[in-house]
Design brief:
Blueprint lengths: L1 H14 L11 H12 L11 H15 L2 H5 L13 H7 L2 H25 L2 H6 L2
Helix pairs in contact: 1-2, 1-3
InterPro entries: UQCC2
GO cellular component, one term: mitochondrial nucleoid
Protein name: Mitochondrial nucleoid factor 1
Length: 128
């Protein structure tokens, strides 16, 4: 049975797309690494809890096939921000997130420096 489970997970990994815009944060990449970790010996791997393995597989299949998206259709193709799915993909790409974090960090540093000047000198030494 472990061989069958292993083949099912491999097939799921082949079908699951990898989003290159999210280096190290993509669900497809994570799934592949977890399958490799969980089935180190390939088809000869002994599964400790087969029920949990099967349940995890079924859950991943539901996510991959958009089971819940199809079961509960949305009225609009936007979210609370008003952005479409494609616009959200662009925003959460790793490269854009790095740029955003740099901007936030520099703004925070500017604000901190402004308040730091107003603090008494002995308090400035206590706060990094």
């Amino acid at each position: 049975m472990a061989a069958t489970r292993y083949r099912r997970f491999l097939k799921l990994c082949e079908e699951w797309p990898v989003d290159e815009s999210k280096w190290g944060r993509d669900l497809g990449s994570y799934l592949r690494s977890r399958v490799a970790q969980g089935f180190r010996e390939g088809e000869n791997t002994k599964v400790a809890k087969p029920e949990d393995c099967d349940q995890g597989y079924e859950s991943l299949v539901r996510v991959h096939t958009n089971y819940h998206k199809n079961k509960y259709p949305r009225l609009r193709d936007t979210n609370f921000t008003g952005l479409t799915m494609e616009e959200c993909r662009i925003v959460i790409a790793t490269e854009n997130l790095k740029d955003t974090m740099e901007i936030k960090t520099s703004k925070w540093k500017n604000v901190w420096e402004m308040f730091k000047e107003k603090l008494p000198k002995r308090t400035q030494k206590l706060i990094p």
